[in-house]
Amino acid sequence: MSGVQQLEVPEHDAGQRLDRWFKRLFPHVPHGKVEKLMRTGQLRVDGKRAKGNLRIEAGQIVRIPPLPDPSEVKREASERDQDRLSRLVIYEDDELIAIDKPSGLAVQGGSKTTEHIDGMLPDGYRLVHRLDRDTSGVLLIAKSAAAAKWAGRAFQSRRAEKVYWGVTNGVPRPLSGEIAGYMAKGELDNRFGNIHMGKEVMMAVRHGTKDSKYARTLYEVVATAGAKAAFVAMMPMTGRTHQLRLHMQILGAPLAGDPKYMTDRPLPGGLDKRLHLHARSLTIPREGRDPVSITAPMPSHMKGAFKLFGFSESEAKVDWDALR
Questions:
Q1: Same fold: 5-68 with 71-156
Q2: Domain RNA-binding S4: where (predicted)?
């Protein structure tokens, strides 16, 4: 732990925000910790409390309170991440780990994403595939580059079988079969009122459209609650971004709680507003060994939907071979 420091703002740093200036000098201190230091008056400018958006001036004196050593912060974060990951593990062997990823936790980082699964992994561990931030369920992680390579090939060759469960706003028509076509990146329009223009989504497009990719999904409506909602099982035969979400929208019944792929039909009352899409199971073959089959328990918001509509997990007995 360092002692108290009194740092003078140099001429070339004048005009910077206090929080960004601090972060540049002490990158190992988490953003939440910086906010707390300012909120409690431990981080001061010319002896006064200051907020993060304060524009500092040359010659000002910034009081820096005692800070943990960078190695301590890294070790604490690593231990915290590994503890959190260990509580999510639903399968492990000498090559693979599978976790039950919660809804709302990103798999990889981005410009505004600092907490994500990829950043929690121990050295040498690698993601085998991806899930959307708001999708829960089975996420596979390889313990080595060699394991990531063969497992990745199983996904690329479509030998890995993934089954998703969803609750839809409305009932897809027809009730079972396949949906296939081409999709490409586009932007949301404002048909449904509270959508921000320019928000990126995937859209159904004609074959030959620039940057389009073919997507195919098998699905079956397992149960319905009148015309209000349905319990749908889905097996993606390709692995495109937002594939299942777009395909359910095209079938006239987008996934409940989806903020991007919507309908003008109101969401049934009593439903949690989170995305109702769950990566229920994964089966992946292995040479010379039995295939790995993993199932993730239902998240609480989907259990709530099942209870609300009278759906049962035991109903989901789909003959996928008959749909291929």
A1: no
A2: 16-79
pTM of the entire structure?
0.75
For residue 164, the model assigns a pLDDT of: 98
Active-site residue set: 132
User: What pLDDT is stored for residue 289 in this prediction?
Assistant: 87
With a pLDDT cut of 70, the percent of the chain lying above it is 91
Class of domain 71-156: alpha beta
Residue pLDDT, tens place only, 158-193: 999 999 999 999 999 999 999 999 999 887 655 544
Burial of residue 183, with CB atoms counted within 10 A of its CB: 0-12 exposed, 13-18 middle, 19 or more buried = buried
Domain boundaries, the chain: 5-68, 71-156, 161-323
Q: How confident is the model over 141-150, as pLDDT tens digits? A: 999 989 999 9
Q: CATH class for domain 5-68?
A: alpha beta
